Amino acid sequence: MTPVIRTIGLTKRFGPVSAVDDVNLEVHQGDVFGFLGPNGSGKTTTLRMVLGLVFATSGSIELLGASVPKHVNRVLPRVGALVEGPGFYPHLSARRNLALLDATGPGGARRSRQARIGEALERVGLARVARRPFKAFSTGMQQRLGLAAALLRPHDLLVLDEPTNGLDPRGMHDIRSLLGELSAEGTTIVLSSHLLGEVETICTRAAIVHRGRLLAQDRVERLLAPTGTVRITTDDPGAALRVLGESAGSHVLERERDCVTVRLNGTTPQELNRRLVVGGVAVGELVVERPKLEDVFLRLTERGGADVPR
Ligand SMILES: Nc1ncnc2c1ncn2[C@@H]1O[C@H](COP(=O)(O)OP(=O)(O)OP(=O)(O)O)[C@@H](O)[C@H]1O
Ligand SMILES: [Mg+2]
Predict the structure, then answer these.
(1) What is the structure's pLDDT at 305?
(2) In what side-by-side order are the strands of the sheet with 32-36?
(3) What is the distance in A from the centroid of ligand 1 to the CA of 57?
């Protein structure tokens, strides 16, 4: 299947700065794709190149099968985007701003314009304040309006640069559910975010960039593959230690109150559990530990110094 986005050797230099450096990105149909990286690591620049908003220094980009920037206009109607705040007219109302965007955008019948706008405003929770001028909107409300603009039409792909930036907890929750709905409806979603917990919850695949370079790209569940340790909770950790001390393979790493952490060393969690039970230890909980996306992110991006690429 043709990827929704494929970049090969994508590179962007601003003078001496390599903002994006030899990046091979692949977004598949149906992905909710998290694009992660420290400040200045090249996420926005990459997304802007993919949308044909800035030229690449070198490398190639395919968007929905079309070569970018050459044929980008063929596929842009199928793409909704929110990249670092679209330009809105400050003195016009939210509704009027959307009407202007809808009128200038491709497709979409004029007759159904008001209904489309109403629905987009409803989806981002702005219906009740849509008559206020844009300049009177708070950061979060401006962000929501940017999303509404991206939602005016159904799209095959949504590209969202930090969509929950500036949103309150309710707003973040609502946007997360909205993205879940859109994904279930078949929209492929690419979002950049600094909220790793959020990415862990909603994304199926993710890429991590650092100083313009792609460090990892995989299914989220693979990025969060088990660490090889198991945490056992029991009323009698002493007995657990005795049983595990006698059994080959596993290796006790840590004991803390009613918890024992064990490295599996090739043993399975099932086998470990069996040994404990046979040894008369009542196991309250046996948890196969996984890293958090934050652990993976920090490990990959920990090299010292400023994150701004040189
Ligand atoms: N128009 C420009 N002119 C010069 N340098 C630029 C320009 N746009 C981006 N850069 C540089 O490119 C690098 C990557 O910037 P980019 O905005 O893509 O980072 P980012 O990953 O989106 O960061 P953030 O998480 O802070 O949004 C930075 O060093 C930035 O200063
Ligand atoms: Mg950015």
Answers:
(1) 44
(2) 79-82, 157-161, 188-192, 32-36, 205-210, 213-219
(3) 14
Summarised one tens digit per residue, pLDDT across range 86-100 is: 579 999 999 999 999
pLDDT confidence of 85, banded at 50, 70, 90? Answer: low
User: What CATH number matches the domain at 229-288, 1.10.40.60, 3.30.70.2250, 3.40.50.300, 1.10.10.10?
Assistant: 3.30.70.2250
Mean pLDDT of the chain: 90
Measured by CA distance, the residue closest to atom 9 of ligand 1 is 45
Q: How far apart (Å, rounded) are the C-alpha atoms in residues 66 and 52?
A: 11
The verdict on domain 5-223 having CATH code 3.90.780.10 is no
The per-residue pLDDT for range 122-168, each reduced to its tens digit, is 999 999 999 999 999 998 898 899 999 989 988 999 999 999 888 88
Question: In the chain, what are the domain boundaries?
Answer: 5-223, 229-288
Q: Which of 85-89, 193-197, 303-307 has the highest mean pLDDT?
A: 193-197
| Ligand 1 nearest atom to the CA of residue 38, by list position | 25
- Distance from the CA of 286 to the center of ligand 1, in angstroms? 44
pLDDT tens track for 195-205: 999 899 999 99
Q: How far is the CA of 161 from the centre of ligand 2 (A)?
A: 7
Where in the chain does DSSP place strands (E)? 5-14, 17-23, 26-27, 32-36, 58-63, 66-68, 79-82, 157-161, 188-192, 205-210, 213-219, 229-234, 251-256, 259-263, 283-288
State if pTM tops 0.70. Answer: yes
Choose one of 13, 45, 165, 210 to mutate for the ligand 1 pocket test, by most ligand atoms within 8 angstroms of C-beta.
45
Q: Give residue ranges with CB within 6 A of ligand 1.
A: 14, 17, 19, 37, 39-45, 308-309
